[in-house]
Amino acid sequence: DDTVAFPGMPVTLPVDVGADARVLLVSRRDNTYARVGVVAEVSERARLGGRGFAVALMPLHRAIPGAAAADADGVLRVDFEERPDTKPAPSLTLELEREYRAVVDEMLELRGDDGRIRAFVRSITDPGALADTAGYNPDMNYAQKLQLLETFDVVERLSLALQFQRERLAELQVRKRIRDDVEDGAQKQQREYFLRRQMDAIR
Questions:
Q1: How far is 42 from 77, CA to CA, in rounded Å?
Q2: How many distinct helices (H) and strands (E) make up the chain?
Q3: pTM for the full model?
Q4: Residues 121-132 pLDDT 10s
């Protein structure tokens, strides 16, 4: 509910998936399911206090959900069309990748990143996976994340991710300018106050 999972983004959910090794994760909002989901591998299972369960999942690639029906045990089974990324020619994405990394670097600098996220982004060499890192941005809204997930073409997705990250960067820069202006104004008022007090003392 209200969460969009991307390939490569670990997810933990309080559900019992039985003995299934893979599940289909499909985002839902206001009882409306997304048109695209992700096939995820079950990496860990845990029993919670009481009778609950939790699973750690690793989404692998995109998929389009099809018909759904309950099996003999009442478990919902969904047909789906797998849509793993098709890697485009490097000449089509190289410039976009370079610009995307530069924008993300600038954003992380403004946010005061300790270098770990920057190293993580730099370690990603696949253009589709690089575009999907935009889905980690907490400032991106649900509709934008869904649009990113539903974009199968890697070049288009990278262009879209770059556009979204540029917008976030512009917002961060405006916020920083306002913060700096407020701080400068406060410091100026403080200096003027002390100068007035000094003048009063001298008089």
A1: 16
A2: 5, 7
A3: 0.79
A4: 889 989 999 999
